Amino acid sequence: MNKNLKQRLIPWVDPHSGTILTKNGDFLVSKKNKFEMYNGIPNFVDKIQNKNQKQVSKSFGYKWTNTNFGQDDKEFEKKLKKPILGFMGISEKDLSFLKNKIILDIGVGSGSTARLWASHAKEFHGIDISKAVYSAPNAIKNFCKDAILSQADLNKLPYKNNSFEVIISIGVLHHTPNTKNALKNIIKKLKPDGYCLFYVYKKKSPIREFSDDYIREKISDLSPEQSLKSMESITKFGKDISKQKISIKISEDLPLLGIKKGKYNLQRFIYNHFFKCFWNDEWGFDYSNVVNFDWYHPKFAWRHSKNEIKDWCKELKLNVKFVKESDAGFTFLVKKNN
């Protein structure tokens, strides 16, 4: 799957020392460390010390390897691509900056959304902290023949600084111990004048924030299997109220609760302001249930305001090219200043 090490534009390096690696059998080796490879994909992840980060890795590893979510090309094109672009608030035209660039996908998972960027790349790299990355070649194979993949921590990336022309991180930075630090660390690997496209969760209305934290506290210590099962009642609730096609009208803003006046579908009103109860008719029960699991099970799921993220960009010398806001989060395209 992966190119010969010497043929690559951007080589792997030891994430601890920054020194070049050489291949020795099923290992990549530096002077002090060696990293095992499986089917051409090395594991650069040390034993994860932060117990919450370990839980997050396990949660997403389970999601991407036990549910088949987004693995079928036709299904992705027909059912998933449009909603995924929608939750980021972008269109395919917004991705024109990717063409013929050296791209790093931070949090590639099992490769589902990588289809959106991999086909544009001059050279495509993807990392994920979870073992889901070992399933990614199957999803990417028809979009990029020579994807360069590794299991790695975004805070200890196996690349030299100033390497990539584009870095993409969709729905990942907020699943680390500190979202701002995560952005700071991935930007180090971006070339001056390079672009970074990232998506992070936004703060919701106060009742939704309370409910989300309450539910997460209740289920995040469960096994992924138990947590997925516990989501079923929430998913069924989302389905039930969606099927009723009820609309409500709010005649006046409720600023203390973060609710604006207007007409609402009941399911979306509850979803946006009280607790996440995702439902999508086209996706069906299992996929909708996975979406609710994806939100509630990981212990790290930070939410931020637009101004907070803009302040980070200013501090990190990132020029904001656009901000797209959706119900759940913000998508930023930024350019790294010289």
Short précis:
By secondary structure, the chain is an alpha/beta fold.
Second-tier CATH architecture of the largest domain: 3-Layer(aba) Sandwich
Tell me the Rg in angstroms: 20 Å
Spatial strand order of the main sheet: 7-6-5-8-9-13-12
The named CATH superfamily of the largest domain:
Vaccinia Virus protein VP39
Roughly how many Å apart are the termini?
34 Å
Give the overall average pLDDT.
94
Total separate domains? 2
Strand content: 15-25%
CATH fold descriptor of the largest domain: Rossmann fold
Given helix and strand content, the structural type is alpha/beta
E-strand count: 13
Label the overall shape: globular
Output the CATH class name of the largest domain.
Alpha Beta
Task: Describe what you observe in this structure.
The protein is an alpha/beta fold and 338 residues long. It folds into two domains: 41-202 and 303-336, Rossmann fold (3-Layer(aba) Sandwich); 206-296, no CATH class. 34% of the residues lie in helices and 21% in strands. It has a seven-stranded mixed β-sheet with strand order 7-6-5-8-9-13-12, covered by helices on one side. Strands 1-2-3-4 form a four-stranded antiparallel β-sheet, with no helix packed on it. A hairpin with a 4-residue loop joins strand 2 (27-29) and strand 3. The longest helix is centred in the N-terminal third of the chain and has 16 residues, at 51-66. It starts with 21 loop residues before the first strand and ends with a strand.
